[in-house]
C-alpha cells in the first residue's frame, strides 16, 4: 500500500521469517535425531515457503475482514475471529501436506524417506509458527497502525499538522500523501472489489456456466487420455545436470549396448569353498550354462 501507516511490508517479511524458522526447527530436530541429510532435502525450504506464504495471506485477509466488520472491537476479539475464520483452512491444508509426506516415509528408498521426514516435520513447525508467532505479529502490526506509526521507523506520524510547507517527497514518505493530507484508512482491497463486482457476476452468467462445463469436460477427457499414455519408469538422464558427464554416458549406453538387454547377475547365497578346485569348476560350468 502507498500509505506509510497501512503499509504491511514488515508483516509480509515476518510471514516469510515464520517459514524460515519452521525450516530451521525441522532441520535441527531431524539432524539431532540422526536422520541423514541428503541432497534432495535442499528443495524442502521452497515447498515450506510456498505453503507458509499461502497461510500468511489467509491470516492477513481474515484479520482485515474482521477489522473491517468490527472496527471498535478489542484486539482479543479481532484475533479470536481471525483464528475462527482462518485456522480451519490453515489446519486442513497443513494436515493434508503432512499426511502426504509422512506416507512417503514408507518408501524403500532411503533418500526419499529422508526427504519426506524433513519436509513433513517442517510443515508441522510451519503450522505451529503460523498459529503462534505470526498471530502475535498481526497484533503488533495492528497496534502500530492504531498508534499512527510509520511502517519503517515505527515513529508516530503527525497527521494533524499542516504539511504544506514540506516537499512532496517528504509528505509521501512521512505522511502517506504527496498533497500533505493524512492518509485515510483504506476500504476493501482492489482485488477483492474486482472479484466481487466483475469476476463473480461474469462467471455466474448462464452462458459462461455452460462454457465452463464444456471446458471442464474437455480437460477431464484430456486428463484421462493422458493417464493412459503414462509409462512407468524413470529416465536417469533427468536426475543429472544438463552439463553432467552422466548424460553422454547414458546416451552411449543406449546407442551401443541397448540391443544386449539388461545385465544378468547370479548370486550364490550360501558359503562356498573357493579354494576347492571342483567347486570353482562347478561355478564356471553353471555360468557357461546360463550364458
TrEMBL record:
- Whether Glycoprotein counts among this entry's keywords is yes
What keyword terms does UniProt attach to this protein? Glycoprotein, Membrane, Transmembrane, Transmembrane helix
Which stretch is the leader sequence?
none
Entry-linked Pfam families: Patched
Q: What range(s) does the SSD domain occupy?
A: 1-140
| Subcellular localization(s) per the UniProt record | Membrane
Please verify whether the record's keywords include Transmembrane helix. yes
- The highest taxon in the source lineage is Eukaryota
Spell out where the chain crosses the membrane: 9-38, 44-63, 83-109, 115-140
User: GO cellular component terms?
Assistant: membrane
Q: How does it sit in the membrane?
A: Multi-pass membrane protein
* Protein family: Belongs to the patched family.
Which protein are we looking at? PTHD3 protein
Q: Which organism is it from?
A: Molothrus ater
Amino acid at each position: 500500500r502507498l500509505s506509510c501507516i497501512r503499509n504491511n511490508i514488515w508483516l509480509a517479511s515476518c510471514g516469510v521469517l515464520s517459514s524460515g524458522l519452521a525450516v530451521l526447527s525441522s532441520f535441527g530436530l531431524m539432524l539431532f535425531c540422526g536422520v541423514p541429510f541428503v541432497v534432495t532435502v535442499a528443495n524442502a525450504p521452497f515447498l515450506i515457503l510456498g505453503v507458509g506464504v499461502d497461510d500468511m495471506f489467509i491470516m492477513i485477509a481474515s484479520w482485515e475482514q474482521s477489522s473491517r466488520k468490527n472496527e471498535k472491537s478489542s484486539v482479543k476479539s479481532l484475533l479470536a475471529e481471525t483464528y475462527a475464520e482462518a485456522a480451519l483452512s490453515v489446519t486442513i491444508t497443513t494436515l493434508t501436506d503432512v499426511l502426504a509426506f509422512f506416507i512417503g516415509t514408507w518408501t524403500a528408498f532411503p533418500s526419499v524417506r529422508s526427504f519426506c521426514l524433513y519436509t513433513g516435520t517442517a510443515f508441522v513447525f510451519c503450522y505451529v509458527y503460523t498459529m503462534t508467532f505470526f498471530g502475535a505479529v498481526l497484533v503488533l502490526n495492528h497496534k502500530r497502525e492504531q498508534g499512527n506509526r510509520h511502517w519503517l521507523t515505527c515513529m508516530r506520524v503527525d497527521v494533524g499538522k499542516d504539511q504544506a510547507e514540506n516537499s512532496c517527497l517528504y509528505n509521501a514518505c512521512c505522511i502517506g500523501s504527496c498533497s500533505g493530507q493524512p492518509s485515510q484508512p483504506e476500504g476493501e482491497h482492489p482485488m477483492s472489489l474486482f472479484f466481487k463486482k466483475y469476476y463473480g457476476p461474469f462467471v455466474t452468467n448462464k452462458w459462461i456456466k455452460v462454457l465452463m462445463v464444456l471446458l471442464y469436460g474437455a480437460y477431464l477427457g484430456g486428463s484421462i487420455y493422458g493417464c493412459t499414455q503414462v509409462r512407468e519408469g524413470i529416465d536417469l538422464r533427468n536426475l543429472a545436470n544438463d552439463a553432467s558427464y552422466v548424460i553422454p554416458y547414458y546416451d552411449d549406453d543406449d546407442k551401443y549396448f541397448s540391443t544386449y538387454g539388461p545385465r544378468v547377475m547370479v548370486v550364490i547365497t550360501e558359503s562356498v569353498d573357493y579354494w576347492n578346485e571342483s567347486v570353482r569348476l562347478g561355478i564356471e560350468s553353471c555360468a557357461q550354462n546360463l550364458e
